[in-house]
From TrEMBL, chains A, B:
It comes from Pedobacter soli. Residues 29-48 bind DNA. Keywords: DNA-binding. It comes from the Bacteria. This is Transcriptional regulator, TetR family.
Length: 196, 196
DNA sequence: TTGTTAAATGAATGAATATTTATTTATTTT
DNA sequence: AAAATAAATAAATATTCATTCATTTAACAA
């Protein structure tokens, strides 16, 4: 029995993400991926059943790594301001350490894979986040509101900042990097919106 | 001289948007588009120079229609709360009347067309929006903050709500439609965040 | 009616795509 | 060292892609 070359397997995963971020799913092909890894296309079909399988499996792995990163040291029992701060911290850190991840997920969110992937697998994660909000409301820390309203205010501004930062330019076209100051200033305003 | 069939031209535009929203740019092809319109592929090459030209021209037209819709009855001289309310109203109305548009632009934002399209053409529009914020700060209606922070708080929650609405399901998986009440509740919280 | 012009077409083109095949290579087990 | 097994490959296949070509069709001008 010959062993599967784990370095090669890792390389495939990494290059796939790179290529999809660079060219979009539209410009991503099995042949290009093989060439980028300097391996035979056929090898890809040993690792994965087909193109779809490759994309789905890689995405699920990355999703899991991301939820893990986001949940680090977080508990739905934390106080509202502590908990939300931790969430912002974790998401900020993850975006910095995995600069391609948000772009990668953007690709999948705006593709035919969305329904398969992004809606299903994260349900446990979402439950926890829902619980956190419910607790905060019950404690009277924030106003009562639907989960979707909460989520839209609590996180949409954060991801918009991260996106602008990674695109590297501000809305007026000038160069742009999110500083810690700007980031936490935004956080303060979000807390102001939600707190009772 | 035979006249170009304007109904056919319109059909091509509409079906192109439909297909891109459904399958992504990745799954969009000239042959599929022709088949969907029940015309010859060659006809597409009478209307448009090539695939790129088709995508770019259609996008520019839709962008113009959208900025027009968003700017209706708005002026950067309006008071902060009135002006932002009008912006939310216009964007909400546009999203309702053109349910595919946000999804369509999402496709392009996460593609190689982004730099060509979404950064260039809207600059006048962005200038106006920047002016509106600057005025609000000068009048002391809102706190001082960078444009990107303002934008992230003022509009990212809105678009997140619209997206959830159009996906038709809430974060916990239950069916979801944005009601006027939910929409304006979110608006109130956003105003609360920004106002001095 | 006839000629002119561009719209519209069906059927090709070659290039790129995903996937499969037959074969070779490396590693473990006997 | 030989047999067994799966990894890895190079080369082929069938399909889909964007684009073009030769031809027909419709509308107007003479």
């Amino acid at each position: 029995m010959r062993l599967r070359d784990t370095e090669k397997v890792q390389l495939v995963k990494q290059k796939a993400i790179e290529l999809i971020v660079k060219d979009g799913l539209e410009g991503f092909s099995m042949n290009k991926l093989a060439k980028a890894c300097q391996i035979s296309v056929a090898t890809l079909y040993i690792y994965y059943k087909d193109r779809d399988d490759l994309i789905v499996k890689i995405t699920i792995e990355e999703l899991e790594s991301m939820t893990q990163g986001i949940m680090k040291d977080f508990s739905p029992e934390m106080s509202f301001e502590q908990g939300l701060h931790k969430q912002w911290e974790n998401r900020y850190a993850f975006a910095k350490n995995h600069p391609q991840m948000n772009l990668f997920f953007d690709q999948l969110r705006s593709s035919s894979y969305q329904s398969t992937l992004l809606s299903d697998s994260i349900s446990a994660f979402k439950m926890t986040m829902g619980q956190f909000m419910t607790n905060a409301i019950e404690r009277g820390e924030i106003e009562e509101m639907p989960l979707d309203v909460y989520w839209s205010i609590a996180f949409a501004p954060l991801y918009n900042l991260i996106r602008l930062d990674q695109e590297g330019k501000s809305l007026d076209g000038s160069p742009f990097k999110v500083t810690d100051a700007v980031f936490w200033k935004t956080f303060d305003l979000v807390v102001k919106a939600l707190k009772k």
